[in-house]
Amino acid sequence: MPANRKLRRTSEQRNALLKNQVSNLFWHGRIQTTYPKAKEVQKVAEKLLTAAIRTYSDVVTVTKDKYNAKGEIVKVEYKNDGVRKLAVRRKLMANLNDLQPVRAEGQRRSEFKAQTKDINHPIIEKIFNELAPKFDKRADDLGQGGGYTRVIKLGPRNGDNAEMAIIEFVI
């Protein structure tokens, strides 16, 4: 059996497809696709999420001297990513598309800008700040790691009879 399914696409098309679908899975929490694509997305997503879970707490506190408005030197503490977390962050950025948040209906533009002002890569921040701690807690409670996604078969699609499936996070 080959290491991955070819999905009747060239390697560039296949990699782009998986990158898009894994990004949408992380962003929305569930997607509907064909069963073979869902199995491939599951492989990639679980590997990326496992790497994020192992390193999400690797944070280094750095103290720097800054000048305040009065011209006095003040010590300011910053939290930076540790070496391992930075490497995983770069890996995630290479393997995921950078999806941007969409303003909700009825939300003011100023509120939306204030909410998204300091976030450069929202999908990466969502993985490290929401998903990784949630699944790490789940792994501690159950005593096992992995199994972060599930694939549910839906049956054949009308038109071409392709087996459809939903892939979603198990939370």
Question: What distinguishing features does this structure have?
Answer:
171 residues, 3-stranded antiparallel β-sheet, alpha+beta, 47% helix, two-stranded antiparallel sheet, 50s Ribosomal Protein L17, Chain: A
3D architecture notes:
The protein is an alpha+beta fold. The chain has a domain at 32-57 and 83-169: Ribosomal protein L17 (50s Ribosomal Protein L17, Chain: A, Alpha-Beta Complex), CATH 3.90.1030.10. Helices cover 47% and strands 22% of the residues. It contains five helices and five strands. The chain has helices at residues 11-28, 35-55, 83-95, 109-116, 122-142, and strands at 30-34, 59-67, 73-81, 149-156, 163-169. A three-stranded antiparallel beta sheet has the order 1-5-4. The protein has a two-stranded antiparallel ribbon with strand order 2-3. The chain starts with 10 loop residues before the first helix and ends with a strand. The mean pLDDT is 93.
